[in-house]
């Protein structure tokens, strides 16, 4: 996404000031969720509200989807089962998109995704490359850049995180 504003050949090159926005703090989400449920005659505990926020890692779009599904399935009191079923709906509604993402990756790129998902830190170690069939250290380096370019992961030094928390959740399933 950043490339839209940083590359001279792109339409939005230097379109405006760039700044990174922090996540909305959990307590703001929690207050909003609990109050919104209460205003419509439904109850959700702080514990269950926090569970939803954590499931989607504070991601606004996914939290909205999840809250909508939970709210729709709740008569008066929300339960863990309702949240689990609602999260499954979020996963199912995004599955085709996630399958398309995986289908567009080479085998070594997908294997790298699974190595990152497993929490591997030494991606170019002989053991990790053999275990996940990652190819050579050069392949690992190139594929990390490809995954970052496709907005699948974000690389911060030695730390690699998934940009889409529900995609990560889906992969773990």
CATH class of the largest domain: Mainly Alpha
Quaternary state, please?
single chain
Distance between the termini: 27 Å
Query: Would you count the extended β strands for me?
Result: 2
User: Which band does the percent of strand residues land in?
Assistant: under 5%
Write out the strand line-up for the largest beta sheet, numbering strands in chain order. Answer: 1-2
Biggest β-sheet description: 2 strands, antiparallel
Structural class: mainly alpha
Domain count: 2
SSE sequence, one letter per element: HHHHHHHHEEH
Radius of gyration: 19 Å
Number of helices: 9
Looking at the overall shape, the CATH architecture of the largest domain is: Orthogonal Bundle
Helix content, binned percent: 55-70%
Overall mean confidence score, pLDDT = 91
- The best one-word shape is elongated
Textual characterization of the structure:
The relative contact order is 0.09. Helix 2 packs across helix 3 and helix 4 packs across helix 5. Helix content is 61%, strand content 5%. The protein has 2 domains: 69 residues, Helicase, Ruva Protein, domain 3 (Orthogonal Bundle), CATH 1.10.8; 68 residues, Arc Repressor Mutant, subunit A. With 173 residues, the chain is mainly α. It is built from 9 helices and 2 strands; from the N terminus they run ααααααααββα. A hairpin with a 2-residue loop joins strand 1 and strand 2. A two-stranded antiparallel ribbon has the order 1-2. The model has no long low-confidence stretch (mean pLDDT 91).
